[in-house]
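ARCHIVE RECORD
Type: protein–small molecule complex
Small molecule: MGD
Source of inputs: curated submission
Record status: active
Notes field left blank by submitter.
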Amino acid sequence: MSRQSNTSIPTATTCPYCGVGCGVLARAEGVEGDRQHPANQGRLCVKGSALHETLVPAGERGFSPKVDGRDVSWAEAIDRVASAINGAVREHGPGSVALYLSGQLLTEDYYVANKLAKGFIGTPHVDTNSRLCMSSAVAAHKRAFGEDCVPGCYEDLELADLLVLAGSNAAWAHPVLYQRMKAAQRDGRKVVVIDPRETATSELGDLHLKLRPGTDTLLFNGLLVWLHDRKALDASYLKQHCTGLENALKAARQSAPDTRAVARGCDLTVADVETFYRWFAETGRTVTAFSQGINQSIAGTDKGNAIINCHLATGRVGKPGASPFSLTGQPNAMGGREVGGLANTLAAHMEYDTPGARQLMAEFWQTDQLAGGPGLKAVDLFEAVHRGDIKVLWVMGTNPAVSLPDNARVREALARCDTVIVSDCVSATDTTAFADILLPAAGWGEKDGTVTNSERRISRQRRFLPLPAGVKPDWQIISEVGQALGYVQAFDYRKPADIFREHATLSGYRNDGARVFNIAALAQLSDVDYEQMNPVQWPVTSGETGHVQQTPRLFSEGGFPTPGGRARLVPVSTQAAGQQPGQRYPLVVNSGRIRDQWHTMTRTGLASKLFAHRDEPFIDVHPADITDAGLVEGGLAMLTGPSGQFVGRVRSTSNQRRGEVFVPIHWNGQFASSALASELIAPTVDPISGQPESKHGIAAIKPLTAEWQARLLLPKHQTVLPTPMNASFDYWSRQVLPNSTGWWLAGRHRADWTELGWQCFGREPDLLMEDGASGRYRAVWLNEDQLEAVLMVESEAGAMPGVEWLDQCFAETGQELEHRWSLLAAGSADIEPAGALVCSCFQVGENAILRAIEEGCHSVEALSNTLKCGSNCGSCLPEVQALLASAPAQEGQQTGLSA
Ligand SMILES: Nc1nc2c(c(=O)[nH]1)N[C@H]1C(S)=C(S)[C@@H](COP(=O)(O)OP(=O)(O)OC[C@H]3O[C@@H](n4cnc5c(=O)[nH]c(N)nc54)[C@H](O)[C@@H]3O)O[C@H]1N2
Ligand SMILES: Nc1nc2c(c(=O)[nH]1)N[C@H]1C(S)=C(S)[C@@H](COP(=O)(O)OP(=O)(O)OC[C@H]3O[C@@H](n4cnc5c(=O)[nH]c(N)nc54)[C@H](O)[C@@H]3O)O[C@H]1N2
Ligand code: SF4
Ligand SMILES: [Mo]
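STRUCTURE (tokenized, with ligand):
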């Protein structure tokens, strides 16, 4: 299948990764940032720049649907899905069918899925991975504003004179937006970072509040009290546009009577707390941007409202440079919320209990089978699957076997379920392994539709690659199932534009201004208009001259979609406490993202470039905890929690608070033996939003004392560890290298390498070096003049040579392999190991940067002039900066970024 586009004119589309929603100009050969797109104005981060390397190649996807592992035609697959649904509904009622969707589906896919389930199958059980992501922010918005609306826009993050980043590692998770925040730095502008860890984002902070995890509500309650007591509230905004100040203040004062109580509870100094409060009180143009450190908590909704309370009380909502701002994670988290993808909502920002909403929906969809009331939220939904109440589960665009808390139980639930249907653009994932029916979905570049980013901006994703044979876009799969179920008229869509128009029409249907989400002005777009649609921020209205008007900001003059038109300050207590560490599990486990990987790595795990920054699962541990637990930096360790384990390489860092470790969420069964962050997370949820506390597990740590450590390199197409090895090791993790696939291996017991070599490769190695005393064993298998396998065993990881040179040898044939004996030494003498990769765009490693610093590059500019590092997407600048700071000071040295 050719992946060439027919033309070399680029297609303007949107990046499928984070919620910044950057515009991309895409060709089959490569991508560049779209200068016309308002979100990024031409910039792209590492993941965006590597997009053409993360297109899913033929080998990674099924080219036809599968039923019980057997290739079948689409007609048969659709028929099987429809008869499973029909059977379950007939025997057990509509509530025995559930859909689990994703903020990575396009709005059109999402709309049709929601319509099919809630409108026609009649099951309310439709939830989405946004439950794990944004549902606390959604609930906080609804409580405060009456509707799930983000009042501000990206420009506000630049205009703010005080930017508060709460529970956000934007430098890694929203890199282009972070670059914009950074470029907006100026005299007098201040940034406060609130995070229990120091991160790449802390670099921007004039003040870092390294608070005790989970204590954000206390901090913001204290702020409300302080603002009130110092007469820094906006009395007129409160009087005209808000209710609930008294009660909110009362609750705040109860937990946070003064700054001393706050400092004690949050484990901060009084001086730091007061500095933050003073800056907030003094600075009219303040934006508080928040993300998963706020949402993924047992008190996520309360944390959100504690923040919003302070903004309402100071009238800083939806004004230029002044607003609360929820940073959304997924590319279409917002679109999913607009169509009603969450189990507790109906559609188009209507709730089940919105007066008249159910009749309106039944009429609009022309159905008499509308679901009766809210369905189960993700964690409860999978419990219902486990109990056997759900007979048919259809998972689309998400990987719950990895991302849901306590995933051992989730896997059990999937294994028990009568019929699991999975739609994915990648065939081998931890979740597709449970699929009774596997539906190969079109991926990015192959499908058309719209997405909405964090600032309510709707952008087009456009197809620029041919649709591979055997693959269908999600909206089409769902529509065909709808028609097979007999709803021929309701799912008679020919193209995404048909769906978009219906969605836009619904948003304005009998709206009368009651719902802010209204894009009815786009309901009349022709196919050509839709094709050419420019990014637009909702609500979208028709101006007097008939042209379309968008809305960058909301609520600066009130007008909240609540019964009385006023926003609500919400009393928030600080009582909620999730799992707490104790004697058995003394550590708090924090989990989150790394710079170059996306979630469960199904796509970013295809690009060698994106592995170079962090090539193995790891555990960040405070140096004192390393000592206490008898760990070795660079050695392996095992975290054990109440429901699972995580094995990773120990990184020593005082960025962590004592007693708290951080693990990445990305590795899973396709990439490592035991590195699922979610195994350490309990299914404890926020009682209001149902969002799990993914930032707060508990565990004990101990060294995984390995008898040996090894690296194995195999040809690139080999992505699975040979079975005999799989069974005999205590640790493995896989890394995609430019020319080969590499594994890290370790074991507690001596292995018989000769025997294993025979079992895996059917013969003795062609080159061999063995030293029983030191435990060193190195073996090379050659096939004619091509490398087939390289195995290097050492007694400790520290003695292991780098693999850059060996990897290059996998690309060579014939005479180049003359230096065969140097294969055993893993390198020719003149190659310097690169060290950890810092700049992914130009592949610049730590060692080169350190050498350049030694040789006189004492500023970021000098380094980027010499090595180019940091001169493209800028994602690595915080790390370049840190290396400069860590190098021994030299005369005249400048480390300031602006210097
Ligand atoms: N590279 C990359 N970027 C991504 C993604 C990705 O997979 N990879 N995923 C996208 C998605 S879906 C999302 S949701 C976003 C998430 O974006 P972020 O929320 O910025 O990222 P996280 O790393 O999950 O967590 C943010 C920070 O919360 C901190 N934190 C933990 N507990 C607390 C607490 O109690 N209080 C406070 N104040 N902070 C706390 C953590 O230490 C962490 O640094 O990223 C998006 N962008
Ligand atoms: N411990 C812990 N757990 C967490 C988090 C955390 O911070 N800590 N974060 C949570 C958050 S915020 C999120 S958003 C989730 C993310 O968790 P998931 O949603 O489970 O992770 P992804 O890897 O993004 O899964 C997306 C899947 O959809 C597939 N896909 C991509 N495009 C398409 C498409 O167009 N159609 C279809 N049908 N499939 C497609 C991909 O191949 C992949 O298998 O994880 C959550 N879990
Ligand atoms: S910041 Fe990076 S990952 Fe996010 S949308 Fe932009 S290019 Fe994509
Ligand atoms: Mo997310």
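CURATOR ANNOTATION: The pocket of MGD (ligand 1) is lined by residues 18, 133, 166-170, 172-173, 194-197, 199, 213-214, 216, 291-293, 297, 329-330, 590, 592-593, 595, 597-599, 695 (CB under 6 Å).
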